[in-house]
Design a protein that fits this description.
By secondary structure, this protein is an alpha+beta fold. The protein has one domain (13-82). Helix content is 35%, strand content 28%. The chain contains two helices and four strands. The chain has helices at residues 46-51, 59-83; strands at 13-14, 17-26, 29-36, 41-45. The chain has a four-stranded antiparallel β-sheet with strand order 1-2-3-4. The longest helix is centred in the last third of the chain and has 25 residues, at 59-83. The radius of gyration is 20 Å and the shape is elongated. The structure holds zinc ion. The site of zinc ion has 7 residues, from loops.
Length: 89
């Protein structure tokens, strides 16, 4: 059952993801079933885990996006306040 191309072990952690078992590859893209800390399971390409910095089932990206939204929203408010109530200068 050992496939040398899959030199990953179950139980390896990448951010929130922990590898569980090899999954069906897509073409040459080797994939593993991963367990995310949030409780979801996701099949990830090893390449994504290793090289593209995939660190969650997607929940992390959603959280980061929301945090970024909150920040940029706060920034817009700040800028609007700096411009004064009349808006566009
Ligand atoms: Zn998750």
């Amino acid at each position: 059952m050992t496939d040398r191309r899959i030199n990953l072990e179950p139980g390896q952690r990448y951010g929130r993801l922990v590898t569980l078992e090899p999954a069906e590859p897509i073409g040459r893209a080797l994939r593993w079933l991963c367990q995310c800390d949030c409780g979801q399971q996701r099949i990830c390409r090893i390449n994504d885990l290793r090289n593209r910095g995939v660190r969650s089932c997607g929940c992390l990206a959603v959280e980061l996006r929301e945090a970024a939204n909150r920040r940029s929203h706060a920034l817009r408010k700040e800028r609007a306040a700096a411009r004064g109530q009349h808006g566009v200068a």
